[in-house]
Amino acid sequence: SRLTSLGQLELTWRSRVHFQPLLVRVLHKSRLRYYGKPDKKLDMPYQAYFEVADGSGMMSMVLWNSLCPEWYNSMKVGTVLLLEQYAIKTSYPFKTQPTPGDSQMKRFATIEISLNVRDPPTKISIIPEDMVRPEWELPEVKYRFTTRSELDALPNNHSCDVIGLVTFVGRAERARKREHGEDFWLYRWVHAIDGTSDQPFILELFATSQPDVFEHIHPMTYLVCTQMRVVRDITENPSRTIYLTTSNESQMFITGWHKGQPYIKDTKVKNFIRWIKTQCEADQMKKTVIGGYYPFPRPPNNFLRY
């Protein structure tokens, strides 16, 4: 009876210091960001963004500092949270925006929920799924799964989710974050097939905040990647150079991690599982490859054009 909603918060936040408790579901989760600097003395300079929603719409929520190691892994996509003693701040204008699975959902973009250890000390509770009541009207997590046969028609930078059987895993490679900086992104190339095309998904998977998944992507595992972005080279043959890359909100799941995830109810995921059951494991094993140098996108055919 004492709950407020995201819609009410947007209308009343300027006139309040203390806010009523909030009941929300996590729809998107960003990678963990470390913002430490040598001259700043912060014990745990971490930050993570979440997109949370209730019956009135969706809003960003920021987890700060020492709350990150305590709560980040527990707050999964689909988790229901009860938030008390949180702060409301004006939104940071330059953060990345995930593409919502439900295009009709209202987005509250002017403010964000801030969760801190103090000023005020936020109280976070996770509500088990079997205790979530229909009258709370919390939205379900929705996805935008794309099959390999549909991929060639998608525009550059389009956001989608994919599921496939891994047939190739490249070695982990590094790329500099900035030209002369000392920080690196870690990534690997992966191929996955879903039975809808002769061509595989070509996936550029950066190490997000899921090292336990990134390091254990092997051939023959069922791989789900969410919030992937389409990359296509318009100048070359578009279908030949199309691939998918991770975004700030991408999540990866492999065999052993799928149980209880919201996407298992999706129609295209069920179709993929039906197709997998018709395949001979030994035949697929013969086609798998691991490691080696994988130059992609490939250079032009002749030296002059290169």
Automatic annotation (TrEMBL):
Matching entries from SUPFAM superfamilies are given as: Nucleic acid-binding proteins (SSF50249)
Q: Read off the InterPro entries from this record.
A: NA-bd_OB-fold (IPR012340), RADX (IPR040893)
GO molecular function of the protein, one example?
Answer: single-stranded DNA binding
Coiled-coil-forming residues are none
Looking up PANTHER family in the UniProt record yields:
RPA-RELATED PROTEIN RADX (PTHR14944)
What is the protein named? RADX protein
Q: What species is given as this protein's source?
A: Nothocercus julius
Encoding gene per record: Radx_1
